[in-house]
Amino acid sequence: MTELLPRPFVFLRHGETFYNRAYLIAGSPNVPLTPRGESQARDVGVMLRRQAWSHVAVSTMFRAQKTARLALPESELHFYAGLRERHWGALEKTPIQDPMPYFETPEGGESWADFQRRVVDSLNTLLSRFDCPLVVAHSGVFRVICNVTQGHPYGARIGNVAPILCQPPAKDQEVWQLTPWQG
């Protein structure tokens, strides 16, 4: 299994989109934030701006970029294609399934192995260069983080703009700790 470098970081999912609100798989389309999603981004920015981030890494997709720009309007943002959401192929714009078929390759879509490899490669590039960066991306990226740190991608969906502190295991622990970041 692919592993993350044992360095802490904070993960932030983008603000609400119309697809999120309708419980549809967005995947690779560049969908906008809803007015609520824009408000969420501005609100979480109050807390995020209290931290001097070593680096703000953002997916190249519009919804993540807009979230980062609204939350951290004075910060320098750095864009990473490897943090893009998974391309779900024929499943895009269809209802979210429970459970999602993470390990299956959807018709015309990206395999889980390829998706996980590009996300982990991007995160490890960041973690090798920066102390506790902020990563603004997508729920699928968080599923990869869960898979490599917890052993599976399943569990409750991460909320929009709910920052998560991702900490490597302490000496007496076996798994990473993924906890709400309080600033």
UniProtKB/TrEMBL annotation:
Highest taxon, organism lineage: Bacteria
- Report if keyword NAD is assigned: no
Q: Does the keyword Magnesium apply?
A: no
Q: Which Pfam families match?
A: His_Phos_1
Sorted keywords for this record are: Hydrolase
Name-wise, this protein is Phosphoglycerate mutase
Species classification: Bacteria, Pseudomonadati, Pseudomonadota, Gammaproteobacteria, Oceanospirillales
